[in-house]
Amino acid sequence: MVFKTPPGVYAPQDDTWLLTEALLREDITADTTVLDVGTGSGTLALAAADRGAARVTAIDVSPLAVGATWLRARLKGLPVRVLQGDLLTPVADRRFDLILANPPYVPVPGRPIRRGRGLAWRAGTDGRAVLDRICRDAPPLLRPGGVLLLVHSGLSGPDRTLEQLTGAGLRATVSDRRTIPFGPVLREQAPWLEAQGLIAPGETKEELVVIRAERRT
Ligand SMILES: C[S@@+](CC[C@H](N)C(=O)[O-])C[C@H]1O[C@@H](n2cnc3c(N)ncnc32)[C@H](O)[C@@H]1O
Asked: What pTM value is reported for the model?
């Protein structure tokens, strides 16, 4: 049966695929515990389970995303536990070997939202409302030697991500970069981004980065 991402759930796109490529380079065994935070359609969680991780947890605040991921995992017979909740809160007492995150990161006017259109991308005026929380809350959940893979736009402060994760004691580097044309969201935001000086006049491309941060043993 072919699974189609339901309306209201983030359909996998360039950021999903860039993070999937990074994920597939990691050493995943049946002992690897994986967390996918902000799972959306569950693409990353399913890729980790398909790669052999026996214990994969996927979290999303959206009930629609939770339902879609649960159904997709069942249809594929993959061992993914799906939880509804706010970022890392539902797993605050657990530890992981690999944490994956493709969170909302687009700088937009106004405050981040908790439901409705834009939940997947709206991230406050600097794009960091969710990123800053992940940089603060994910490092303590990594086992020694554990890895956080985080994808976001070059417009949302990769240097701040590196600084915060390094400050938390992780070895953090940009592992992947890809320049892509603006999608519908950035095209819509372009006049505001230009007015903020976040993009040059007439800019039509953004760079995506994957940040890989490893907890020392
Ligand atoms: C950019 S989408 C990424 C979806 C998927 N991981 C992928 O790569 O295709 C971000 C996801 O984060 C979820 N999200 C937004 N805020 C959240 C929060 N506070 N806690 C958990 N999930 C959240 C959204 O519902 C959305 O599914």
From this structure: 0.96
Using the mean position of ligand 1's atoms as its centre, give its distance from the Cα of residue 180 in Å: 20
Say whether pLDDT at 66 is over 60.
Answer: yes
3 state SS of 85:
coil
Q: Which long-range contacts (CB under 8 A, 24 or more apart) does 174-178 make?
A: 174/209, 174/210, 174/211, 174/212, 175/22, 175/149, 175/210, 175/211, 175/212, 176/18, 176/21, 176/22, 176/208, 176/209, 176/210, 177/207, 177/208, 177/209, 177/210, 178/14, 178/18, 178/207, 178/208
Q: What does the pLDDT read at residue 92?
A: 97
Spacing, Cα 163 to ligand 1 middle (Å): 23
Q: Sorting pLDDT into bands at 50, 70 and 90, what band is 110?
A: confident
How far is the centre of ligand 1, averaged over its atoms, from the C-alpha of 9 (Å)? Answer: 9
Domain boundaries, the chain: 15-215
Per-residue pLDDT at 1:
55
Give the domain 15-215 fold: Rossmann fold (3.40.50)
What is the residue whose two structure tokens read 């106004």?
110
Residue 2: count of CB within 10 angstroms of its CB: 4
**Which is it for strands 205-215 and 55-60: parallel, antiparallel or unpaired?**
unpaired
Kindly report, residue by residue over 157-199, the tens digit of the pLDDT: 999 999 999 999 999 999 999 999 999 999 999 999 999 999 9
Closest C-alpha residue for ligand 1 atom 11: 38
Name the burial class of residue 144, with classes exposed (0-12), middle (13-18) and buried (19+) by CB atoms within 10 angstroms of its CB: exposed
